[in-house]
Every structure is written in structure tokens, then in C-alpha cells.
Amino acid sequence: MARIISPQYSTRPKVCAFFATFTLSRRVPPATPSFYPIFMLRQRPPLAPISGNRGPNAELTPYQRGIIYGQKLAGSSARTIAGLVNCSKSTIRSTLLKSTERNDGKSLHRSGRPKAYSKREERKIIRIIRTKPKLTYPQLKEEAGIDFSRRTLQRLLSVYNITKWRAAKRPLLTQEHADMRLKWAKEHGIWDLDKWKYIIWSDECSIVRGSGKERAWVFRTPSQKWEKQMIEPTPKGKGVSVMVWAAFSGAGGRSELIILDRDFESKKHGYSANSYIDVLEEAIPTLWEPGFYFMQDNAPIHKAKKTMKWFEDRGILLLEWPPYSPDLNPIEHIWYELKKLVYEVNPDIDSLSGSEEMVREELGKALKEAWDRIPQKHFDALWQSMEDRCKAVVEAKGWQTKY
Q1: Which residues are CB-contacts of 49 (< 8 A; sequence separation ≥ 6)?
Q2: Which of 26, 136, 272, 324 has its CA 20 to 30 A from that of 355?
Q3: Residue 234, exposed/middle/buried by CB under 10 A (0-12, 13-18, 19+)?
Q4: Is residue 403 part of a domain?
Q5: Residues 105/69, Cβ–Cβ less than 8 Å
């Protein structure tokens, strides 16, 4: 016969008595699935109702404290009330003693654990990150001479709404560049829309196949991170690219999207002033009229003597342009829309096979069609933003802006 455990040797007699009753048979049943539910507490299934019973050492809710106050007023004893709310008599007494201090039965504020840092250390940390924002957490702890955890440091900074962010990428500027940008922004910031609408904004962009594809998102658990179906593969090496040129103005509308041809007579067989002049010969007659200004940045092919002479011979006025100022050129924001729309025009552009020249030709066709699909309201919003762009440069004292 199986051994029977006597209740007198246990601190939990009800459990042991139940166990003894169950084991009165000659043989203890094997550990089958039907055996375990009797002795093991099963986890609550997802979305199942939560038990109203109070857990051990759990804090009383305002509702439970209300029951205690009400039962006391009704004349119930502490023992009776303790049975109703499943707690000890000492808890009932302390709850009643603090009843006048609580508001609607809510818990009183606790002072909590003392901070691991002093006010002086807190001010020092904030002062350091204001002057050296690119420090890492270990560097910051060493600089401030503190030894508490990174999590404590993060909580401290969160009080000031400071978190660690990836730094935005912008062109490198010197003080001279910033001064020139600031001067330009102050001079042109007083222009109204009637002046800005007659500026022809132009630019080139090298578009690589796949650059406009949106990042893939997947539903997964943390452990599935590296499963094959959860990964978005990227092609090896640099993909097929196309250099495009375009321009637009508020008064004259947009140009055609033009694919630049390489100049194989140049030293590196790249894009030269000759390539650029071929584009201008094709596009400017459809865009420029007397009273318009043409904007181009300070790229070498734009500032070449041959290019400048081309504009001078035709009497085309150029807008003076500060160095390293893509944030002031509204057409820069069109390229993002163009790259996205390519996948609406040709969703299978990434899977095209064949020679590099054939893929480049198909990509060029898709880009031209995508250019025509960009809504006119995007162009209008961009050239009308010039007042805000100039204002942002002035506020930044010539340094980088959000644009």
C-alpha cells in the first residue's frame, strides 16, 4: 500500500488530507496527463476571466477598502471582514486606521527608494550632455564620475525628455559656408510668392534600382527574428543606376525627366559639362522665358566655363546659390516621391533580368512614367515653402536645418 502522509506533520492540513485520501488505493496511478491537473495549478488561458480572489501580499483596491469601511459601519467584526476580502485581521485594522488619510480609498503616496544620485550629480550630467551630446553612455558615466546603472541614467534623462537618437546626416559645413548661407537666406527671405514662382529649380539625381523600395515589415515573435521567411534579402554589390535631370517652377510647371548620357570622351567616362549642356539644350526652351531665373547648385559641371558661357550667350539669368545647400532647393524632396512611384509603375522592376543596358533602359522608362504621376500639389507645396526654408536657415544661423 502506498504511504499515507498524515496531516499532523504538515503546515497545510487540507492539502495533505486531500493527498492522503487520493492515495488510499494499492497503487499510485502513473504520471499521466489526467493525473497532473489535480495537483498542479494550470496557467490562465489567454483572454480567460481573471479571478477576483486577492493574491498573497497584494495591495487592496479602492473597491475592497470600500467594502471594509462599509462593513465596519454596519458593525461587522474584523474577523468577519477579513474573511470577506481574503486578508488578515491586521490588514483590516491598518486599513481602518488610515481611512481618514486616503482619498476615495486610493493608496497613499510612497516616498520610494532613495535616488542613486544627488541633485549636484544630476545637474552635472545634464550640463555634460548639453555640451557633448555625442557621448556614449559609458563615456558619459566616466565623464560625470558616476557608477550607477545605465537604466538609472536613462530614467534620469527621461525626466528632461532626453533620449538617445540617431544623429541626422547632413552635408559638412564650415563657418564660412554657414555665413554664406545665412547671408543668402536673409537677402531672399523677404521675397514673396510672386518672386519665388519665377525661379526654375533644377537638379540631378542618381537613382539605383531598389532605392525606393519600402522596408518590409513582418509579424513574428522575438525568437523568429532570424527565420528565413522573416528576412528581407538585399542584393550584393551596387545595383543598376540611372542619372536623371529635371526642373520645375511655380509659373512654368515641370520639365520632362531626362536621362543623362555619359561622356565617353571625358577622362573618367562620367557625366561632364558636355552631358549637362545636352540636357539644357533639350529642356530650357520649354521652361525658360524672359523674367525667369534659373537655379542650379555649385556642382563642377554646373560651374564649368563652358556651361557658364552657354547661359551667358542666351541671356539666361542665374540665381546666385550658396554652397552645400540642398535644404534650400525644393526639388530635392521630389526624388523621394519619384523613387517610391517607380514601384507603382513597375512592381517587378527588382526582378528584371537581362543585360545591364536593358535593365537600365527599363528603369529609365519606369522613372519617366513615375515622374508624370507625381501630383502637381507636391510641386506647388515645395516652391511655396521657400519662405519657411529661408527662415529655418536664419534661425539656425546658417547651419543645417530640418529640410
Answers
A1: none
A2: 272
A3: exposed
A4: no
A5: yes
| Whether 281 and 386 share a structural domain | yes
* CA nearest neighbour of 194 among 397, 59, 383: 383
Containing H/E element for 239? none
Judgement on whether residues 351 and 207 belong to the same structural domain of the protein: yes
pLDDT in tens, 203-215: 999 888 877 676 7
pTM for the model: 0.67
Tell me, yes or no, whether 36 and 154 share the same domain: no
Give the Cα-Cα-Cα angle 115, 118, 119 (nearest 5 degrees): 115
Nearest to 403 by CA among 382, 389, 387: 389
> Helix, strand or coil for residue 199?
strand
3-state secondary structure 74-112: CCCCHHHHHHHHCCCHHHHHHHHHCCCCCCCCCCCCCCC
Distant-in-sequence contacts of 301-308, Cβ < 8 A, 24+ apart: 301/271, 301/272, 301/273, 301/275, 301/276, 302/276, 304/272, 304/273, 304/276, 306/273, 306/274, 306/277, 307/273, 307/276, 307/277, 307/280
| Number of domains forming the structure of the chain | 4
Stated as kind and residue range, the H or E segment containing 232 is: none
Question: Judging by beta carbons within 10 Å of its beta carbon (0-12, 13-18, 19+), is residue 45 exposed, middle or buried?
Answer: exposed
Query: Domain of 340: which CATH number?
Result: 3.30.420.10
Check: CB of residue 332 under 8 Å from CB of residue 203: yes
Residues 309 and 264 in one domain: yes
Same domain, 211 and 338: yes
Query: Which residues form the domain of 70?
Result: 58-110
- What pLDDT, in 10s, does the model give residues 126-185? 999 999 999 999 999 999 999 889 999 999 999 999 998 888 888 899 999 999 999 999
